[in-house]
Amino acid sequence: MTLLIIIVEVGGLQPRFPLSWRNFPITYACYAALFCLSASVIYPTTLVQFMSPGRSRDHAIAATVFSCIACVAYATEVAWTRARPGEITGYMATVPGLLKVVETFVACIIFAFIVDSYLYKYKAALEWCVAVYAICFILAAVAILLNLGDCTNMLPIPFPTFLSGLALLSVLFYASAMVLWPLYQFDEKYGGQPQRRMDSNCRNSHTYSVCAWDSRLAVAILTAINLLAYVADLVYSAHLVFVRV
């Protein structure tokens, strides 16, 4: 994808590109930075440190180093190309636009941790939390796609109003999940397990493997992160005035 962007830039093919060129490169760069960051953390902590010394381990370490370099490079691109105060640019180059990328990325990580339905099945409160993650992800993804497709004028309401309403709704939804998920997962009164050793799956697992309790804790932390992202999104969306071109 990076090579494609270079070809379009060098060849001056931006007018023929099917997506909004003011929004696409920085959106891709932000996603790439986040994916490289996650790979730079997950790969060494879950695999490299448990490999025996040798050529394969050296190659894995080298791959991790280059992943870190790529992450820094993509993050630098995002920092250089994001919108400055008073600058006319695409929405995805603004802080709320970049926060949309973060929100969808964090939601994808949450989905990876709740892929096993036993974490929330048969508990309406936890099923509501899963619905919150899905609904907010879809809404944020729609906002991104509308900008990438340059289709924001297709909405029946002004796009800034849509964004503010989306951010407010997401804050309220995530606030409820921030209360319900930890309550029903870690409070014994609601059938939760406050300590890792209380989970039979964790007692029988290896120290470096992720068990059910670890997944519950990870989702709680990621929920808090996304709630903060949506709050920041709401604040910026309420004050930001941008010009769509």
Helix percentage range = 55-70%
Q: Could you give a short account of the major beta sheet?
A: none
Number-wise, the strands total 0
Provide mean pLDDT, rounded. 88
Q: Strand pairing plus helix content: what structural class? A: mainly alpha
Number of helices: 8
End-to-end C-alpha gap: 24 Å
User: Which residues form runs of ≥5 with pLDDT under 50?
Assistant: 241-245
| Strand-residue proportion | under 5%
Shape: flat
Walk me through the structure.
There is one protein chain. This protein folds into 2 domains: 1-81, no CATH class; 93-245. The protein is built from 8 helices and no strands. The protein has helices at residues 2-11, 24-46, 55-81, 95-113, 124-148, 159-186, 200-203, 212-239. α4 packs across α5 (124-148). The longest helix is centred in the last third of the chain and has 28 residues, at 159-186. The relative contact order is 0.12.
